[in-house]
Fold these 2 entries.
Entry 1:
Amino acid sequence: MIRLLLTDDHPVVRDGLRGAFEGCPDIEVIGEAATGVEALAFVARHHPDVVLMDLRMPELDGVGAIRRLATEHPAVRVLVLTTYDSEADVLPAIEAGATGYLLKDAPVADLQHAIRAAARGESVLAPAVAARLMAPLRRPTPGALTARELDVLRLVAAGATNRAAANQLFISEASIKTHLLHVYAKLGVNDRAAAVGEAYRRGLL
């Protein structure tokens, strides 16, 4: 039996969540808390398996409570349930030690599944949250040098002239100049020497 604590500062939300687990043969709601402080006190006394945690609460917010729980009760799994899906909300909660992150519009079946997964120590992310976290990995970093720009910069760093670099890369000198202009703009410099120095500083070379 998975012993569950509901933590949310809205009684109506807690009532709705309690109803979501009625009839679950393997999940038992053993208590409720309206603040992070209450959640910590309850966990210390009753040691639930999973804490369903809201983020925005008085006295001690969800992230603060998660951080304390991770330190004081590392065996307890914390599953965030909130309406906020921005990176500014998600990342601090995950970094604090949350096992998963769900949104309050999640279907009841998904919520029940997430509680079971959290109890097993598995990470659970709402699809919208996972997509938001993956987005920066799928798009180029603003200002990142292209492979060709790095090729040009490496040759320049080795002392190659524009003509020599063009010959080695089988492109025109005009293309070399264009690539260098893009490199200067992305690195925030004005000349070849500064570009090479900045590239070394950033670990690009």
Entry 2:
Amino acid sequence: MTETPTDSTLVMRGITKSFPGVKALTAVDLDVQAGEVHAIVGENGAGKSTLMKILAGVHPPDEGTVTIDGQAVRFDSPLAARKQGVGMVYQEINLVPDLTVAENISLGQLPSSAGVVNRRALNRTAARVLQELGARIDPQDLVGRLSVSQQQLVEIAKVYASQPRIVVFDEPTSSLSEHEAQALFRVLERMRANDIAIIYISHRLREVLDISDRVTVLRDGRMIDCRPAQGLTPQEMIRLMVGRDLDDVFPKREVTIGNPVLEVSGLSRVGVFEDISLTAKAGEIVGLAGLVGAGRTEVARAIFGLDRHDAGSIRLNGQELTIRRPKSAVRAGIAYVPEDRKRDGVALSLSVKDNISLSVLRRVSKLGWIRRGQERVLAQQKAEELYVSPPAIDRKVATFSGGNQQKVVLAKWLATEPKVLILDEPTRGVDVGAKADIHTIIGELAERGVAIIMISSELPEILAVSDRVYVLHEGRMTAELERSDATEESVMSAATGEVMAA
């Protein structure tokens, strides 16, 4: 374990925190230097969020001390933490879409005189902050019209404008493409050059190693180790995080691939995607790759009937389908796990049991009445099959970790016994243990003969699990690659619209 540097901006010592029935943190230590990117990694439930909420003034610690620039502090509110130079950039973007970029950046501290906002000063401040961060965004643009990556930069600019000493980034790249993430990393470098202490939380382990100076590993609310990022490997981090070896985060099973199940030909939607043709065979995992905005999700939604398509055909086991709404797709044997599980995938206020049965109410009901016994048996079976932990089917989904919520989404759709399963970012925002479980589930489904289409912004994930990879660029198919030909270079070349070498 590394020694504590004497010039640390932040020092947290012996941080302990309990909630009713749960000990979230036990004697956790953390120190971060000025101009350092210090990563914190661990499974969901390891204590990362609780530790950061203590730093941000959301929760007081039961025990332990927090020191900033040599001064002991104890925050009773997030406002008190901000006044001491602690900034938080959360995974969920927290901006007002109907206000301008400049208004969002200065929200809560608008320059004004006699109750009138000084627009010139407002825009001048925003322009200066955005320029310092290297973000090419017009201060007078409405935030609601910006891309997700641009909104992320505005979120960072809002924190940066308060002149923080410490900034916490919580999964900042979860909704960004590789190219957009690189823009974020350039902003981090500028902040590092200004001697800001940066705490970086991410499940993307290679990304962590690329940008961080040191890595602290948490497991079950305890600090396991703190090491320099240089020389550390993803495999070693995984072992420290889960307490066991995971030789392959993306296990690939050898499966006999059968006949075509889903055949999409010439699918088009004006202004969105054009002439998309693809095939998914029984037992095959087909990767759908491309940069954010390439049209991957839009194609998936059209196949499932969530969005219309203007031309093209969809065939299942050789029979042409007319799919104008999801109900038709489900009846035909197509299931779709959406990108945003909290908004589109589960009803957080309902139980695991209720969520799983939603997709098969006809099967578990008679004369309009739900057969509760049959519903419980089905839900318990699916929860156990998909490693939902704990398999407590009467608990509200909102009380489970992100990884287990994703498993409930999968359980809901697998209850329909689909022939084709479309997975849109199935492991986004889940920890490495849950990610391994989800990939095991995907492998088991392929063994059963389900045809799987998987969308992922993590290129190593696509390459590791796919039997074939289709690549989209600006709504058009630019490559179809067999597993042996799919490399990071070949996929990115097609994803960026470059001409591939013969």
